[in-house]
Amino acid sequence: MSMNDQEPPARRLFLRQIGGASSVAAFAAPALLGGLASPLASAQNAAAHPTDHARPSGYLSLGPQEAACVEALVNVMCPADALTPNGVDCGLHLYIDRQLAGAWGRGDQLYRQGPWHPGKPQHGYQSPLTPEQHFKAGLAVLRREAQQRTGKAIEQLEADRLDALLQDVAAGRMDDERYALGAWFNDFFYPLFVQACFADPMYGGNRDKAFWRAIGFPGLPAFHGRNVVQYRGLPFPGAAKPQSIEDFS
């Protein structure tokens, strides 16, 4: 992704934040973990998940208004440029929807029986809500606040206006005593967005390995231990044609 001054503000914000830690990393969606797995785990994931031919193409979790909002968000956070298409064309919305609809969204690996006391970030996810419910609650607040502040639905806003709105959200300027919208965006929505960009394409995002190509990532890292030594600090020829889990299935 280009770093020049003409780059859209949202893309620069995305690049600046991508290396930051997040509390969501403690319960990262399994699709991202599957995209960075060992050869054995990759084979198991390939067997456990359907291929592109069998995967449903519609939304599994998001309703029509929620989907329209998420599509607008991923498009402004990932605008089309010379290196990648826009967020929807990269499938980022579908990755998010599939994670919400799956075991991660249901909270299958989370303890949720309480008691619900305020915790520290290192305590991990602390909520009676499933990740899917938490995502949708924050999305509803964001949609409501955007409507009140602008008089328009999020998907009706121009890219510059939506970008400015998201920067207010991320800075905590749209928080109130009822809901910490900034924490929801920074610690929940944004990490899912990053995962959608860089997870294996079999999970819906990173379509055609667009982000892997953009950063020169060759694909399944378990196969590149020797190459890391040989090509350290040098361009790796295999990065021009990255390989995903489905390439080995």
Percent range for helical residues?
A: 40-55%
Spans of at least 5 consecutive residues whose pLDDT stays below 50 are 1-7, 11-27, 33-56
How many strands appear in the DSSP assignment?
A: 0
Q: What sequence of helices (H) and strands (E) makes up the elements?
A: HHHHHHHHHHH
Mean pLDDT: 80
Our Rg estimate from Cα atoms comes to: 18 Å
Describe the structure.
This protein has helices at residues 9-17, 30-35, 39-48, 64-77, 92-101, 103-106, 131-150, 159-170, 181-198, 210-215, 225-230. By secondary structure, the protein is an all-alpha fold. It has eleven helices and no strands. The chain is globular.
Quick tags:
single chain; 249 residues; 46% helix; disordered N terminus; mainly alpha
Task: Give a brief rundown of this model.
Helices cover 46% and strands 0% of the residues. The chain has helices spanning 9-17, 30-35, 39-48, 64-77, 92-101, 103-106, 131-150, 159-170, 181-198, 210-215, 225-230.
List the topology elements.
Blueprint: H1 9-17, H2 30-35, H3 39-48, H4 64-77, H5 92-101, H6 103-106, H7 131-150, H8 159-170, H9 181-198, H10 210-215, H11 225-230
